[in-house]
Amino acid sequence: MEGPEKLVIIVTHGPDEPELATLPFVMAAGALVSDTEVFMAFQGEGVRLITKGGADGVHADSFPPLAELIDTVAAIGGLLMPCSPCIENRGITEDQMLEGVEVIGAARLVSEITSATATLNY
Quick one: which of 10, 34, 55, 74 could link to 67 by a disulfide (CB 3.0–4.6 Å)? Predict the structure, then answer.
């Protein structure tokens, strides 16, 4: 394989499940500091995590606060991509998403998955 390895992480848990919402960002940060490209896809309730204020107050024991982890992952190059129908189904608009987030559809996600070294689902 040429180029860096790529990890796709699919996030489906929202703020009401702090540990399951936090773990994907812990894995993403670990991959990014190991020179692995990270593409995070958000579906279902997971889309709420990357809205402005969506991770505020979310904190799983033994981990940094989720909002801090999200900022770290974004700052070191993680791509945050919510599912278009998933945000629409929840009445979330693109301007409510965090800065740098790109809303995507199924075709883009499938393309990222099929070109990835590995995929994790949370």
Answer: 55
